[in-house]
Structure formats: C-alpha cells, structure tokens
Design a protein that fits this description.
The chain has eleven helices and five strands, in the order H-E-H-H-E-H-E-H-E-H-E-H-H-H-H-H. It is α/β, with parallel strands linked by helices and about 260 residues long. The chain folds into two domains: about 5-155, P-loop containing nucleotide triphosphate hydrolases (Rossmann fold); about 165-255. Strands 2-3-4-1-5 form a five-stranded parallel beta sheet, with helices on one face. Helix 1 (about 5-10) runs parallel beside helix 2 (about 25-40) and helix 7 (about 165-180) runs antiparallel to helix 8.
Length: about 260
C-alpha cells in the first residue's frame, strides 16, 4: 500500500497496539510511522487522523510531547537492551496530553536479541494508552515472537540502493552456488569476513534480491536454499556474530549436498 491507502485504513479509528512498517525507503517508512503516531494521538473518534485538532497539529509539527522517535545512537550500532528497557518504562507512564502515546522505533530491525526480548515484554502486555511503531527495512531480522504481536504495514517497494561491492559479492555467491562450485563459493565469501554489521545486513538483503532476480532460472529448492542462507546470516548478525563466522555459515549453507 502507499501512504494514502494507509490513511484510508486509519479513518475507521481502529488502531492496533503495535505495527511493523516495512517496504519502501527509510523516509517513506518514517512518514508512515508518523501518520500512525498522529492517528494514535488524534482527538477524533473517526476519520483519524483528522489533521485539524490540537494533537494532530502538534504531531504534524513534530512537537507533540506524547510522540517519540527512538533512533540508533550510531549508524553502525544497533538498539541496545538498555534503550528498550528505558522505552518500556516511558511507555508505562500515562501520556501528557493525548489519550495515547506513540513510540516509533526507527531501524527496529537493528535491535539485538536482548533488546528484542525486552521489547517483547511490552508487546505481550501492552499498556492501553500506548501504540508502538517498528520501522524495519528487513522485518525478517526481527524475532518471530515480535512479528507475531504486531500488525504489518507493507508499503509499496522502493528499493534502496545498496553498495555495489555488496551486490557483487551476492552475485558471485549465487553464481558459484548455481554452478555447484564449492571453491567458487569459498572465494566469493572471503570478503564477507571484513564487513561490519550494517554491511553484513545489507549483504543478506543483496543476496535476497539476487535470488528474486533469478526467478525462473533457479529451481524452487535452490531459491529456497539461497533465501535460507540469507535468513541464517541475519540471525547470526542479530546475535552480534562477526563477519568471519557469517562467511562460514554462508559457505556451509551453499556447498552442502
């Protein structure tokens, strides 16, 4: 869906306690997240967000005291368990002005496992006065238990541009796998050892895109194996496993009989 479709859905006034917003690009996901937050604080019963009430006006100006955006402190760092525990404590407090508070977590797919488990506690027993919006480029990085407790909003895809070197690595891995060239897989995986956490996540995205781009050329089982290799890589990265181990996992997944 696009932003206008999301707005139409919200007009009924019914809100879920938690959302995962995925698809599109980071700016569009943030716009959708802010729209959900505005709907959460809007004073209208239907046709939310109305856009004209005091809360909507403050939300649109990014000055509403009951809307917060939690961002990563550093580009190459994920959200920590302490960050999520602090968010959980703030969410337990009644809103200052609106009937609900909205908590937007940008790059939610960069929460580490401990942070996700801390977030899971509040998703399992959410305060009635809180709405959580998780913005995620790759929701598969999130635990299934987290995803299952959220309503997913899938925006129209607008692929972000990945570093060409990561696209090249993904293509070489897929090519070697397709040829059943074990030595080629090992060679293609060597640069993975030196990648940082963000680059590793982007590489898994590049591998998925490469797989989807080969639709019709790959067998269903081969496509599944490539996707499973990317999913397995994401799980290791989420657990703060270094590039060398991620490279080993890719090799093991792609050269097995």
């Amino acid at each position: 869906m696009d932003i206008s479709e999301l707005s139409a859905r919200l007009s009924s006034g019914r809100l879920f306690h938690a959302y995962i917003v995925t698809g599109a690009d980071a700016d569009t996901r943030l716009r959708a997240g802010k729209l959900l937050a505005q709907a959460a604080v809007c004073q209208a019963e239907r046709g939310v967000p109305c856009g004209v009430c005091r809360d909507c006006v403050k939300a649109k100006r990014d000055i509403h005291p009951d809307i917060e955006i939690v961002r990563r402190e550093k580009e190459n760092a994920g959200h920590t368990v302490d960050t999520m525990r602090a968010l959980r404590a703030r969410a337990a407090v009644l809103p200052n002005e609106a009937k609900r508070g909205a908590h937007i977590i940008d790059d939610a797919d960069f929460m580490n496992i401990q942070a996700q488990n801390a977030m899971l506690k509040v998703l399992e027993e959410p305060p009635e006065h809180a709405v959580f919006v998780l913005l995620a480029d790759n929701p598969q990085r999130l635990l299934e238990t987290v995803r299952s407790r959220c309503e997913t909003v899938s925006l129209n895809p607008e692929q972000t541009v990945l570093d060409p070197k990561l696209t090249d690595i993904a293509r070489e891995l897929a090519d070697a796998f397709d040829r059943r060239d074990a030595f080629g897989v090992v060679k293609a995986a060597q640069p993975v050892e030196k990648l940082g956490k963000t680059e590793l996540f982007d590489l898994m995205t590049a591998l998925r895109r490469e797989t989807l781009g080969r639709a019709g050329r790959l067998s269903a089982s081969d496509a599944e194996r490539l996707m499973e290799a990317a999913d397995s890589g994401d799980k290791l990265i989420n657990a703060n496993i270094k590039g060398g181990y991620v490279a080993g996992e890719l090799i093991a997944r792609l050269i097995q009989p």
